[in-house]
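Entry for the shared binder. Reason: the reviewer on the internal report wants the predicted structure included alongside the sequence.
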Amino acid sequence: MKLRKVTAASAAALVLALTATACGGDDSDSSDTGSGSGDKIKVGIKYDQPGLGLKEPDGSFSGFDVDVATYVAKELGYEPDQIEFVETKSADRENALARGDVKFIAATYSINDERAKKVDFAGPYLLAHQDLLVKADSDITKATDLNDKNLCSVTGSTSAQNVKNDFAPKANLTERSGYSECIAALQSGAVDALTTDDSILAGFAAQEQYKGQFKLAGLKLSNENYGIGVKKGDTETVNKINDALEKMVSDGSWDTAVKDNFGPANYKNEPAPKIGNIVS
């Protein structure tokens, strides 16, 4: 009789353990499915790019990438209050997806062959061009002027290396962890130019505290096809995001987002690119 009591208790404990495990499994998958019942989705963005991905002082987020990510997440089944934006710096984007820290990344993430070996891309959703940001009174007008000058870029970005490889091999490269740090270095005179995509530079130049201090050189040093990064092999999510991006363009939301975020800087944007059309 005593043995039967122990066995019954063990069976009950096993049932409880299995039930708890099942509940735990549901929680771990909650970032992948939007059921409208309190599930969350984690989305990677930049925190320091005005006009694209910016964390505001009140904790809210603004920018074109934020608007695109919010639209896409809604098409995946998530309301804005179910989105958790996670800062993903340039050097950590591939790792963040591989670790499963985020479901997708919309963070001025240019599609290229090297990155495509590690992640899958939806899009592109914006065609930008590499440019230079210099002081308003700078005499730098072309990329070759950067020889023997101090050039700033962000760690993990390909922009500065493009300049050194193709235009100004004698440029002195300084890498900082964020664009705000490069802007501060440019403002102080520690560097002569900041290079990255024109969309990013325009966002900074349009900020109230920088008005009149900087100018875009107006160069098109490269084509930057912004894509949404997804964990390698997650074809289902890529297809869903592509459908969402096509809908965003067709219903006019893409144009509205461009005007809302880049209009103040008089940014000359390219038309919305077609899904899968990578401009080399």
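Summary line for the report: The first helix runs from residue 2 to 28.
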